[in-house]
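Appendix B. Raw example, untouched.
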Amino acid sequence: MRIGLRLRALRTDRGMTILELAAKAGVSSGSISQIERGATNPSISTLQKLRAALGVTLWSFLESEAEPPRENRYVRHPGERPKIVVGGSHFTKELLSPRDNDQLRFMILTIPPGAQSADVLTGPGDKAGYMMAGNAELTIGDEVFQVAEGDSFQFPSTIPHHLFNRSDREAKLIWIINIRESHL
């Protein structure tokens, strides 16, 4: 619901109708309406199209301008962490990095058993991670890696990639993104 409310605020702040945003983003007006009402959970690729059309970062959908300012721009306390639940699998991304840093993002990914990243953003930069708990299958291009608790990894974010938790227990990892173009 929070993403929908924020999408509506960003759209109306720019004086755009749902139809105008739909045309600019290449997303159906029905989808935008459902997201704004909280009737559907958008995919990352849909959010990417909407953020590009609105000229904002992906995390702008979670950061409310009405929220009180944080203590400072260098520290993000646990209660200040925006979360995105991706698709129906409850794959969760919790932002750890402060909002003011546009080149580096790091977050906690929580991947329930059987869940996978359905669509990921690729673009100039690097991605890295550290598996805190559980394990997952990491595919980078044509290579598949089993990543277990304590393992770390790094790769160029231009390479298609995804995570899949084939186990029966939740996986949690720190996910780090070095952004060379503001696609997040």
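End of appendix B.
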